[in-house]
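Let's practice the habit of predicting before peeking. Look at the sequence and jot down your guess about where helices and strands might fall. Then scroll down.
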Amino acid sequence: QIFWKGLDGAYLGGNDVFARAAGLDNAAQVAGKRDEHLPWAEHADAIRAEDSAIVANGQPRLNRQDHMTLADGTLHWYLINKLPFHDAHGNVIGVLGTIEDITERKQNEMMLQLRGRALDASVNAIVITAHSAEGDLVEYANPAFARLFGHNGDESQGRRPDLLLGHEPHSDDSAALRAALQSRQEVTLLLSARHRSGTPLWTQLHLAPVRTGGDDDVGHHVCVLTDMTETINYQEQLAHQASHDALTGLPNRALFADRMAQAVTYAQRYGHSVWVAFIDLDNFKLVNDSEGHQS
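Done guessing? Here is the structure:
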């Protein structure tokens, strides 16, 4: 939108884009109109004061952002530039201005802010990697990643994710992670890891490729890491409790039966013998009942 106004605040002209924004049929109808006659009439006093200041000091007012709610209820944002309008002799005869509708840009900025805030506020560790000649390197790591692994965002940038997870360079977990980062599909892995302090962890890693090229190239991966340490430890405890005596910590009947079945099957297959030794402790129950289990 382009417009120009006289010293009295009346519009001298404008282009067709400005005319349509002002609710007019064509640019010829712009001349003689004042701000109080147009859709932004409620801002007329502020606009008049701004124009008077530009005329008085001869200084432009550039890159000012403002918003207005249109008749249909939608909120629109505008980038406004105004400067003194001079005649052929250099005298200030009014104000020349441009208005750009930046609503879509502001909406995109807001969406980026919301997504960025969602990443920062997530309880799951999130890492974004970028493919490079040196391999897949961390470009972003959220605060939850720092809490889980002890490496903050600045320390993580430019480093390989497998090293941040505490993997040895040639370990199976490191190889699995590198292979997943080469995939063009979403991949979910259960990996062992280590905190920066050396504390062992279990993490479920979900990788999603981000296609950035016109030929379907994968330039980035979004990696979501969920702490599974408590879950895995609990499962291991349940498995141990199912196969070991709670009092002595020794293998129980269930584990004995399982191992016995394996031994019998092995003996039958290879023609070996199986020996079972039974040891009975006399009066063991009496010791437990009189001295207690701790004895």
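How did you do? The chain has a mean pLDDT of 89.
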